Every structure is written in structure tokens, then in C-alpha cells.
Amino acid sequence: MNIRLAAALAILSSSAFAAPSELNVYAGRPLDAGSIAISDFDSAKTLSGDAVAIPKDQNGVVAVSKSAKAKKDDALTLDFNKAWYASLRVQSGKPVDLRPYLDKGVLALDLKVDELAEGGLSFRVKCGDQCVRAVPYVIPARAAQGKGWQHLVMSASCFYQEGDDFSQITQPFELNGTGKGKVSIANVKYQLSGKPNVACPDYKTVSVTPEKLNESWSISWWTPRHEKKLAEAKQVGKSAQVVFIGDSITEGWEKSGVPVWDRYYKPLNGIALGFGGDRTENVLWRLLHGEVDNLDPKVAVLMFGTNNTGFRQEDPKTTAIGIKRNIEELQKRLPDTKILLLAIFPRGEKPNDNLRQINDKINAIIAGYADNQKIFFLDIGKDFLQPDGTLSRDIMPDLLHPNEKGYEIWAKAMAPTLQKLLPDAGKYAWDNVSIGGSGFVSGLIASKTEPGLIYARTDVGGAYRWDVKKNAGFH
């Protein structure tokens, strides 16, 4: 903890009143007049008896129950299946002041993991309408499966970020699950002192600390995809003229964006290094582990950071630092490559969407990274928006990821800038040109070894050639 934060927390904890040495959030029952609730993305229910459940499609469920007789009396068990979001919330009847516990205090609880092989876990505190702080616990929770009750202790300051108001907390604890699992908690309390045995990320440096994407829904495929991309990059090698680096929006070039990709970037032997869910630290891990080392593209297109916003509601300055660290690493590994840094695309339906506004602030910072020599900045966000600033589901059905129409907008809006950065791209129209019958020319490629020789790739296989010296035309 840095000196500035420690001093701030010390001031916060020196309240005029004497805080209890232990604040029982759940000890067989919630705080006075409090309640236990469960929720998924669509609904919420309050526990009034011994159990409550939210049925989900395809036999999924989010449920909580009280243990009648167990090793931990009156434990709460969260049972979830096929859940993108499953929440067990301990809500206080009246706001509680957690500031006295932020300096040297801890959050302690007992945890038992019966099943989590296909699930994930995190602990959360809600600190306002637009403020939720979390401590991820996926990997250690999976390791605890079947090992009985564990006593966990984490610093209360794990949930605090500079500027947060912890004086009126109405939801002092949340157990959050994803995927499939069965997890029990008991004896949840804040203490003025304690020895932590659970580590938590430093929110000020997490965006620049390289790490794999360890989410319940990513663990099974993330590393294999990285290995696949290493092989793909090795195969494409120095022939790739353009590389895209990013998150699920970049990965979408391999999904709904394929028809657009085949017209614009396949002729350039382009490669898309996009991983769904990636934040700046995950992209950095991939760069540090060789994902671009076999490449030497003319241009690298970068666009990521929206998951730092969506998952952590991160300070824009922190995300911007993470983007800058990736640029620095990319320049180290691809010193001759020009970087086209795109503004993070708009998300959310309206201009006042909280997450969109965070992204806008990030964009305002990263625009200053351009030197117009090796790093170029381009904001095409307005091309996706209606005149009133709204985002249409006709372009981004979930108000975050483009469909084919959205990828077409992206490619066309970026084309003039990309053509300037690619040495020969301006000579050619990288669009479908009908050649009669059912075929079309999907791209033109200049020979690297014979000046004046050009190949025209077609969608139906094979290629035509134009030899300027022989003036032979296509044959």
C-alpha cells in the first residue's frame, strides 16, 4: 500500500465514534433489519424461509439455502448452474460505515467449495449506485473444491479505491458466481485487525501486470487459443501486412466479420489476434509470450480497453496506462511496424451510458499517444452512432459487439487511414470487383520479388497475374 493511500485510510478510520472490533455481516442471520437476496442478470429474490431459487433456461438455476445442521451452523449455500451471473447478497437494514476497517482491518469468512470445476467465484462490496468493488477468487476456489471449510481473511482495503465513499454501505458483502458451482459461506465479518491469507490485486497496477484471463468461462479455451495463434502467426510469418490486436471485438473478425475480413484484409495476409474478455493485462501477457514475434507487419491495429471498463469500471487513467504499456511492448517487438491506435468503440445505447462515458475518457487520454510518425490515433466511433448519439442494435445487437454491418462500417471508416500507412495499398481498391460469372476479385497483391508483377486473388480459387513489363494483361 502506498504512503498516500495509507494516510488517507488512516484519516478515514479515525472516526469520532468507537467502531466495534467485529462487525458481523452474517452470523446465522444478516445485520439488524438486513436481508439475504439472490439475483441473476434478469431478476432478484429475497430469502424469506430456508431456500429460494431463480429457475433459468435449459435446467439452469440460481438458488440459495440455509444449512440446518452442518459443520458451520446456519451457513448459506449458493447453488448455480448455467449462470453468467449468480449473486448471493448480504444486505444491511441500514447503512453501515466500513471506513474504520479500511486501514488495518480485514474481511473474514468461512468458505466451503463443493463444486466449482466449471465455475468461478469472486467477493464483492457495493459502494454506491455505480460502484462495485471485487476480489477475484477463481483459481484458489477451484483448488479448494472438496477440501471442506476454509477460513479466509482478506484486507478490507482490497475493496477500496481512492475517492470511494465507504461511510454508507448498504451491501457490505456479495458472493458472486459464474458458470456452475455449489459454494457455502458462514461467519462473515469485518474485523479491525487480522492477518490476511487471501491476496488481492492492486487496482492501480493491475492493468499493467501481465496475466492470463482467468475467468470461469475462459480458462478452458484461452491458453489453447494463444497456442493456436502462435502457430498461425508462425505460418503467416513476414507476409502479414496488417495485424489486429484486441479483445472480443477483434475476435469477431473470425465470426460475424468474416465476409468483410475476406474482402479487406485477407488479401493483405492479415491476422486477427483478438481474445474475448481480454483486458489490457491479458493482451500484455500474450505479447510477452510471443504472439507477434514471428510477424513483421507494416501496420498493427490496436483496439482494447472496454473490458477494463466493463469488468472493473476502472479509472480511465489506469486503463490508459495499460494501453500505453502494450504499445511500448509492441514497439519493442515490432520496431518497424506502424501502430494504428483506435479509440475504444462506443457501447451502451445512449450517450449518457456510464460505461460509454468511461471509455470516452480513456479515448481522450490515449489520443495523446499519437506521434504521427510511428503511432497514429483514429476515432471512428461516430460512424457507428445515430445523429442523436444513440447506438443501434442494427449495428451492435448487444450494444457492444458489431455484427457484419458493423464490421463493414469499421473497415470502410478505417480504410483511408490504413491506405496511407500501407506503402502500396493506395494504388488498389480493396473491394470486390466483378470478373463475370460467379467470381470476383477479392484483392490485389504486388509481388515482393518482381517489380511490376501483380496477382489478383479470386473468391473461387486460383489467381490472375498482370505483368507490366510484358503488358500481357490477365491470362
SSE layout:
Layout (H helix, E strand, L loop, with lengths): L2 H11 L8 E5 L8 E5 L4 E3 L4 E5 L5 E6 L9 E16 L14 E10 L3 E10 L2 E6 L1 H6 L5 E7 L15 E21 L27 H18 L5 E5 L1 H4 L6 H7 L6 E4 L5 H9 L10 E5 L2 H7 L3 H18 L4 E5 L11 H13 L8 E4 L25 H18 L11 E2 L5 E7 L6 E6 L4 E5 L8
Parallel strand pairs: 12-13, 12-14, 14-15, 15-16
Antiparallel strand pairs: 1-11, 2-3, 2-6, 4-5, 5-6, 6-11, 7-10, 7-11, 8-9, 8-11, 17-18, 18-19, 19-20
Helix pairs in contact: 5-10, 6-8, 8-9
Note down, in words, how this protein is organized.
By secondary structure, the protein is an alpha+beta fold. Helix content is 23%, strand content 29%. It has helices spanning 3-13, 138-143, 219-236, 248-251, 258-264, 280-288, 306-312, 316-333, 354-366, 404-421; strands spanning 22-26, 35-39, 44-46, 51-55, 61-66, 76-91, 106-115, 119-128, 131-136, 149-155, 171-191, 242-246, 271-274, 299-303, 338-342, 375-378, 433-434, 440-446, 453-458, 463-467. The strands form three sheets. Strands 1, 2, 3, 4, 5, 6, 7, 8, 9, 10 and 11 form an eleven-stranded antiparallel beta sheet that branches. It is elongated. Residues 426-432 and 470-475 have low confidence and may be disordered.
